[in-house]
Amino acid sequence: MKQVADPAVSTLLNTTIVGQPWHDDYRPGLGVDAVTGQVRARAVADFEVQDTPILSPMYTYSLVQSESDMSSMISASAQGSYNMEGVTVGAGTSYLESMSVSELSVTLVAEVSVNRSQYSLAPQGDYRLAVEPGPDFRDKYGDYFVAGYRSSSQLHAMYQCTFSSVEERRKFTATLSAEVPQVFTAQGSTAFEKARSECHASVNIIVSADGVKTNIPTPADGWTPATILSVLLPWFNENMAPKPLEAYLMHYRVIDPAISGEVPVSPDVFAQLAFLYDRFWLARARFHTCPAFGRPLVDEPYKQLEKKIEAYQASLPHDEAQIEQLTSDTNELLGTFTGILNRQTFFSQVMESAKSEPARDQNFDADKGTVRWNYGFNSSNLPGVSVASASDHVEQDWKIGWREHTFNFRDSTKVLVGWDVICNWTDGTGGDWHKACDQVIGRGAADVYVKSDYDRGYSWSIVWYFVEATLYPTPRGQ
What we know:
Blueprint: E1 11-12, E2 16-21, E3 30-32, E4 39-42, E5 58-64, H1 67-77, E6 105-115, H2 137-141, E7 144-162, H3 166-177, H4 186-198, E8 202-210, H5 225-239, E9 243-251, E10 262-263, H6 267-288, H7 295-312, H8 320-353, E11 364-365, E12 372-376, E13 388-396, E14 404-410, E15 414-423, E16 432-435, E17 445-451, E18 458-468
Antiparallel strand pairs: 1-10, 2-9, 3-4, 3-7, 5-6, 6-7, 7-8, 7-9, 11-16, 12-15, 13-18, 14-17, 15-18, 16-17
């Protein structure tokens, strides 16, 4: 019986899908619904697949330094066809959660994969239907069946590199971009360590493996470039046990051309779903590498969004309004992550600027031409960074002796990011000032002392620039 769909709102499915990420509930012969992503009953007769030889190990090294790089990694590893992948974390995709990228971080991804030379399929394509196609065939058995798989053993090492300044990060990426070090070799590991040392990078290595016989060993002091070579790689070589990581899906019309290859969903809808899932995978990586200070802002929104997408996945192809809403929610969450990372970058710049503060009790004379001193930051154009200010002023007429005053800032809910001291008199008799505390920038309390010349009055102002403490990393030493 010929099955047809309205071409105005339908998609003609591909006859085969190669490289579909393997799901835990996939089994050879089971059906798969391209629209809902759900596994369906078996419509094909039993068959045996024929394994092919194991190839030599293949090594891949990538430097992930931008959001675009992250999306490319996601597209290559996690995105299935139509609506059959969604946001499921499966074999071979969990490592994507460990990509850390910002103005202060990059991730070097090292991968070794040992694959079979070809997909394990039935010899001579010997697939037969075990049921008679009818009007409800698609509802029962889906669009595709699992015709085979490609088995692999894979090892990923994620070198999360973080820096204290944007400049150090730029120097590091410039060094590695020309040729990403092959860190699974002695020479490459040495080159990486040299660049890390020169740029003062802090490195956290996260490893994952699939298609292995035993659990990954855990070094007492954690993973280092040295233990990757001495412990991890020998363990992987000894424990490879290839398992299905990619599925080979075949449309039923390959067996019976009378079965329609069309589904009642517009190609535009599948494109919208692919975009949604790509954005959410990016949000997932951002969530799992989010700095601790930003976690309270995203913990609940992320978990709610993940549950929504998983709950609605099967029905999304028929609910464009829900796709639009979930995409909007995902982009909003990504905006929150951008703000968090921008604040982390800004704060690193703030703390760097603290080094330019004068020493405690170092005297400055407003009688020598300079009447305004500026330290730190008074604003930022980074999205998510908001700098507020508070001003104070003191002015008194002359008296015998000196006039003196100490400006104070006390607010534990704020972090000072800059300050200006202004002498409002420019006639050469303004007086002196000095910092009356160890540090202003990066703190929630500060003191600045001002003093008139002898037998003179004075007029001084101060402007404190600050941000909300809960939105930024904990200041060092406070």
